[in-house]
Amino acid sequence: MRSLCFLLLLTLSFTSCKSSKKAKQKDSQVVINAKRALKNYDNNTAIVEDIEVSKAPISETKPAITKADAITSYALQFEGVRYKWGGTTSNGMDCSGLVFESFRANDIILPRISRDMAKQGDKIPLRKVQEGDLLFFKTANRRNNINHVGLIITTENDIQFIHATTRGGVIVSKLSEAYWNNAFVEARRIL
């Protein structure tokens, strides 16, 4: 009886193991139809007959979540939060606070001020931006410094970014909007 249990456990373990962590995740269900699995186990012998093993259809699953996905998802939960200078919570948020907290929640520490964030990572051309990259802006200010940052959430059809504005709070905007396009300075990749 022990050898039969061992044989069944061994068979099941081979049919359900994966070869590596990098292998695509696949949903598979192993159905075992064992007819007369134990026909005769007198004298500590077991006869296993008519075991059918079939696999249900395999469906593709989503790839593992990336760091950029995690950061943008975290930022998007603040959409609609009112603007508060120096804010970093759902009670109020400013642009650099939104980016700072979104990265910090994913174990990446950035400077707290947008002009200091603009010194981090690598400068990249707009044609190469991806989700999770940062956009920096100079809006009307006396010092002519970078004073605004946004986090790219998608590049499909148009670059969209989440940021906090004094009028709208935390919103999603498009870089193609005239105001943001004119104020744009550079894009940087932190990840």
From TrEMBL:
Keywords from UniProt, A to Z, are: Hydrolase, Protease, Signal, Thiol protease
> Biological process (GO) annotations?
proteolysis
Q: Where is the NlpC/P60 domain?
A: 65-191
Q: Name one GO molecular function term.
A: cysteine-type peptidase activity
Q: Does the keyword Protease apply?
A: yes
Q: InterPro entries in the record, alphabetically?
A: Murein_DD/LD_carboxypeptidase (IPR052062), NLP_P60_dom (IPR000064), Papain-like_cys_pep_sf (IPR038765)
The family database entries (SUPFAM superfamilies) matched by this protein are listed as: Cysteine proteinases
Pfam families (UniProt xref): NLPC_P60
Q: Which PANTHER family has this protein been placed in?
A: ENDOPEPTIDASE NLPC-RELATED (PTHR47360:SF1), MUREIN DD-ENDOPEPTIDASE MEPS/MUREIN LD-CARBOXYPEPTIDASE (PTHR47360)
The UniProt similarity line reads: Belongs to the peptidase C40 family.
Q: What is this protein called?
A: C40 family peptidase
